[in-house]
Amino acid sequence: xxxxxxxxxxxxxxxxxxxxxxxxxxxxxxxxxxxxxxxxxxxxxxxxxxxxxxxxxxxxxxxxxxxxxxxxxxxxxxxxxxxxxxxxxxxxxxxxxxxxxxxxxxxxxxxxxxxxxxxxxxxxxxxxxxxxxxxxxxxxxxxxxxxxxxxxxxxxxxxxxxxxxxxxxxxxxxxxxxxxxxxxxxxxxxxxxxxxxxxxxxxxxxxxxxxxxxxxxxxxxxxxxxxxxxxxxxxxxxxxxxxxxxxxxxxxxxxxxxxxxxxxxxxxxxxxxxxxxxxxxxxxxxxxxxxxxxxxxxxxxxxxxxxxxxxxxxxxxxxxxxxxxxxxxxxxxxxxxxxxxxxxxxxxxxxxxxxxxxxxxxxxxxxxxxxxxxxxxxxxxxxxxxxxxxxxxxxxxxxxxxxxxxxxxxxxxxxxxxxxxxxxxxxxxxxxxxxxxxxxxxxxxxxxxxxxxxxxxxxxxxxxxxxxxxxxxxxxxxxxxxxxxxxxxxxxxxxxxxxxxxxxxxxxxxxxxxxxxxxxxxxxxxxxxxxxxxxxxxxxxxxxxxxxxxxxxxxxxxxxxxxxxxxxxxxx
Length: 572
Prior knowledge:
The chain is of the alpha+beta class. Helices cover about 30% and strands about 20% of the residues. The chain has 17 helices and 22 strands.
């Protein structure tokens, strides 16, 4: 039962709340409008609901002005995102995604920072076939977007220990258990008949209720010493605790999130905070009760302030912890010691447990495509045709060809060499530690380029690295086209956030292990200023750093930026 002490913010519910309330548990009129061929778009109300089904409507912004001049509607297309807990897929699933991207999308796959695939350029009349073909491999797109729990992340490190596979199974189970219960997805896309007399009541969604959550909710599980999932950026995070080689449970962290809005100090990135410990068997109950707190007390009036981090800041961390323990009926244990070393991926071949091999492939900004001089997509297709293990998508937008037997390793390595598939060793360590969101031309929120621009910028930065002997120095660098934080820019030792076309805010000073936010360094600067600043900063780092000192730590010690203290002063 909800506490009588706590309350949600006052205010008129946002229009999205009306849409959810009137949607008949996410059905709306999607079934009918997707059959309408008079327009390649759909009404805004239905587009809001599409997110819960793993998709939303976009248009090609490169063509927007020209189409407007010709009095044509925008070049509407759909983005579709798959639910892939822990980023683990079979070769058969990879092949279907490859085929579907050619058949219905723009011929490419994007590995996202939430450890799954998304595709762009799908036309309205191809959406149902696309989802059904994905479903044929036991994959779905349910809750990959929308005001629900999203794809559950898990450290993609199969060679580390047997603990990883155990943690992955918990992540997979958690993802399944936290799905919406409505059958809307199955009725609309998979032709499931609606059961007569199905009650339209809260019982349809015993956890989410008819209005679902105020905003999206993100969960991730990290396995120290690797913090590849950036556990402190999650609404709800779990840090695996291993004692004497056994998984004993998880430290619980709450209240992370990377999104903000330019010029709005009421919005900010924030790191999650550790509040206690739970056993593996308590994982679901902790997750469910935490979600219900956000359901009951999150801001349903102002969506910019609707994430769980704002709910915690408004109510107080200790108050939220007490409410959680009240709903659980038991207290969390004392948090246990842990240690993170890094939040990036390790590349190349590594031999893991039980004699299996794993190859981590560097994929720049996660874009799987055939380029004029690099047949990446074709090479991975050929590997999928012979691979008997798994593919593991990482939260750093890379790919692990996992669980390769010694016998198969030679065969796969031959294909790697044939297609020039790279572990990135010929690139700078900075490029291998880079991430970018999609941004233009498909993202409607983008204010500047990101994925299309960062490689070009890095070409020029690598010259500066070479001048200073820093080519092999790992420095995390991230770029987004807007402040919504999809590439987790707040946790880049160097980060750029789009402000306008060709202009970015520049941030410095995050921790290499993902435990400290960066801070604003320069505002609204273009490429010339960016390169001038980096030339000065990297030169100083090369000359003044201490042994083993990471770049983010150096800029703080040198007084270039101040360290964040409470995780909320990102814009100071």
